[in-house]
Amino acid sequence: MKEIIEIFKNRSFSKLFFANFSSQMGSMIGMIALTFYLLDRFSSQPVFATLAELMYSLPTLLIFFLVGVVADRLDRQKIAYYCDVICFMMSLLLIGAVYIGWMPLVFFFLFLQSGVQKFFFPAEHGLLQGTLSKEEYGTAAGLNQMVFSLFNLFGAGMAVIIYKFFGIYGALVVDSISFAISAILIRSGTFSESARMPNGENSIRDINVTNVLKDFKEGFQYIINFRLLLALVAGFFMLGIVNGGFSVMPFYLLKYKLVPNTYEEVSAVFAAVFGLGMLAGAAFASLLVKKLKYYQMLSGGMLISGAIVVVASFSETVWVFILFMTLLGFVLPSVNVAIGGWLPSIVDRKMMGRVQGWISPLMMLSQSITLGIIAVGFPNFLSIESLFWLVGFILSVVSIFYAVFLPRLYKRVELDMKELLSGA
């Protein structure tokens, strides 16, 4: 608790924290409400809900070579601010597109908004890394995990309530307001020049083809030559499959197997209980991170999570399913806190944007492939249970991969750091 109080005394961190909270909360409400809207309007065509998720992930594959370079070369504060402003305008345009009722236009604006959002997070992460000390990264990761838990606890419930009482338009209005609040907080923050522009001052004219390719190549070489980072990035690709599956799997299981007539209400209960599990798990993980190594939390958390996912697929009642998902919610934060605390502590501040520029597209690539398989295969070729089996298997594979390789790579980095310090 003392560490949390101290970190919030940093006003720059506080504004970044609440800006990120506002942006993600509104975006989550808008996305969940849009999923419900598509499932209601096109009940016999679940492919539309999957397509909406694809519109969220596909833009990364088109702009991934730009995202990290922009975050490392331009003013990160301005990038985050203008991303929020543009997303605010896109939310308003989405309201108009839904009103017209032409789905290609809805997907188009969703695609554009998602593309702009992809520039926000590397810039925000870079600002955060330049605002905190290495000792505070673990605490910040725990706080971010608790925020994510609160999203699961209240986000889906709020989305259902807003959607039920105010419709899709009300949810999209909340979405737009959240981006506006985030933009105001980012703009009012005071960040050091080294946090905003760790590579010196550059202009938009410097973001040309030659420099983009050069920086993108440097980011690739940095990851390839840093074996510990390479191992983590490889695991992120597999985790993208998990994210893609879980973005739609629980809703499908509830609607098409367990409670087809009341899946919206049960989804809110499921999300709230899952969020409670994650909130408790985040608090536990914040304590665990001081007792265990990062790689122990990663491999152990993934192995237990994979087992829970497989067992949950055999649930015959909604309450049994919710119980297993609550257990999953308790375990997952240990994975997220470990990753969130480890990455900024090993990545050079000047390279953070370019590293994030590689991680995001790799995750989105595997996430998009997964969603594409679900869109084509479900329910004609794939059962909902088989989707859970696939995700559980992947979690187990990544767990074994981490358990074998990360300890020796961790020791190598520790040894290199000691040699560097002794030489200095």
TrEMBL record:
It comes from the Bacteria. InterPro entries: MFS (IPR011701), MFS_dom (IPR020846), MFS_trans_sf (IPR036259). GO terms for molecular function: transmembrane transporter activity. PROSITE patterns: MFS. It is a multi-pass membrane protein. Keywords: Cell membrane, Membrane, Transmembrane, Transmembrane helix, Transport. It is found in: Cell membrane. The chain crosses the membrane at residues 16-39, 45-67, 142-162, 228-254, 266-287, 294-314, 320-343, 355-381, 387-410. The keyword Transport applies. GO terms for cellular component: plasma membrane. The keyword Cell cycle does not apply. Residues 12-410 form the Major facilitator superfamily (MFS) profile domain. Pfam families: MFS_1 (PF07690). This is MFS transporter.
